Amino acid sequence: MRAFLLLAALALSGCSFLDDTPDDFENARSLWSDRDVETYTMTLSRACFCLPESLGPFEVRVENGAIVSAMRDGQPVPASDVLTVDALFDLLEDAYDEGAHSVRAEYDAALGFPLSVSIDYDEDIADEEIGYTVTDLSAD
Q: What tens digit of pLDDT does each residue of 80-96 get?
């Protein structure tokens, strides 16, 4: 009963696929691809055992699938410091292909992009987990 209530709450929240599976991943990626969103802005945050400036949040502008600007605290950062939505999908795909210990993602119900990503590649290694959160995605 508890699991049913949790699933019902998630369905009403506007998000889907909380516990990611390869099928959920493929469905979300297909939805994102079908929406053909190539130009958008978003806020990207990273969760990791890394330097504070690597965490963000980053304001990212993507045009025709490529990062054209990335800012942190109003200052430009290299495009290599952030990811596009497609790169997040690639990261998830790689985690599945590599047999990561744990892969969790939550996807936007309307567009399919990852709202949150959490990957633990190896259960026995501390501090190698990585996570990302996407907020305020606005398609042009």
A: 999 999 999 999 999 99
- Among residues 130, 112, 104, which one has the least CA distance to residue 26? 112
Say which residues have a Cβ less than 8 Å from residue 60's Cβ, sequence separation at least 6. 41, 42, 43, 44, 67, 69, 70, 82, 84
Q: DSSP secondary-structure letter at 63?
A: E
User: What does pTM read for this prediction?
Assistant: 0.82
Compute the radius of gyration of the chain from its Cα atoms. 15
CA distance 72 to 12: 33
What is the number of alpha carbons within 13 Å of residue 26 lying toward its C-beta?
4
Give SS3 for 45.
strand
Cα–Cα distance for residue pair 52/88, rounded to 1 Å: 20
Sign of CA dihedral 67, 72, 76, 78: negative
- Show the beta-strand stretches assigned E in the chain: 15-16, 40-48, 58-63, 66-72, 75-76, 102-108, 114-120, 130-139
**Tokens for 92?**
């998830």
